[in-house]
Specification:
Number of helices: 8
Distance between the termini: 22 Å
Shape: globular
Helix content: 10-25%
CATH class of the largest domain: Alpha Beta
Order of helices and strands: EEEHEEHEEEHHEEEHEEEEHEHEEEHE
CATH topology of the largest domain: D-amino Acid Aminotransferase, Chain A, domain 1
Largest sheet: 9 strands, mixed
Amino acid sequence: MSDTSSTHPGTTTQAGRTEGASLEFSIERNPAPASAEVRDAVLADPGFGKHFTDHMVIIDWTVADGWHDARVVPYGPLQVDPSSAVFHYGQEIFEGLKAYRHGGGEVFGFRPERNAQRLQNSAKRLALPELPEELFLESVRQLVQIDEQWVPAAGEGKTLYLRPFMIAFENFLGVRAAQTVRYMVIACPAGSYFSDPTRPVDIWLSQEYSRAGAGGTGAAKCGGNYASSLLPQEEAYANGCEQVLFLDSSENRYLEELGGMNIVLIKSDGTILTPLSDSILPGITRDSVLELCERAGRRIEHRRITIDEWREGVADGSIVEAFACGTAAVISPIGKVKSPDFTIENPAVTADSVSMRIRAELTGIQNGELPDLMGWTQRLA
């Protein structure tokens, strides 16, 4: 049983790569969806990344046919050949975004076009086909609309987290870009990434390991970047910290990012500092924070920042706040930065701290509680 949805005008190049794909989505409804009782229990305490909705999106790509066979199907395991290139050469990318239930009952996304664009940039770096922006947006809309009952109620501080991803799907062991690729979207209800998102988190300064190097895949959202962060993350846990901070791979001096979030520092004169490097993932939450700050008249410095500048700035009072930001946690204040050689104790945050005011403004826009003057939200259902 199937039905169709919106189409997208477009053409296909001679190489088979679809530009602005003209595709219809077929829909196969899950014959055994979760019961209302099961769904309500999950929504009451969703955690993060533990429970998944009833459906998923799949779109295939080949060199010959470009993007084709867009479909919504029941959520379930994949049948993947052991020789599939994704297992052997790590050719995969992903995104993360949220769907928010607003007070009127409608469901909105927050800047999903930016996720579409970042997925394209990641695809380019990983030698994968670029998914057209409108096809990305439609894939998200399709999943949210069919699984709308999984979107938590407004006002609960919960969301539906969406995970679009793309993998090499060719059964071939030769070392080259895959000629068969699969794009998918899955979703899970999500509570706060940290138990108390306003509580400062302590972070461990990794001095032995780097997240990414110059010319590498640091600016792409691919699994290998996260895999390389897991061992130092374990080191962070062993030292009583919840996150790990990476420095540059060349000089081991300049701030990069945390294992999965960007860094922002605030100076005593209100200036906003954030690290600049071609091996940092361009954060959509971070960029939104910077735009809100710029709109409020704050000075923005997007530049290289050394760990010594942070340490000395806290010591002399010129750096008064530090926070991490990303899709999952939104904004989390940073308490201590620990290393074997020193500890940076950032000033305590209050409800009136700049970072907490920014967080309130950003989450207010996302949840439909404040006016969206920037045009960032898009209705999904």
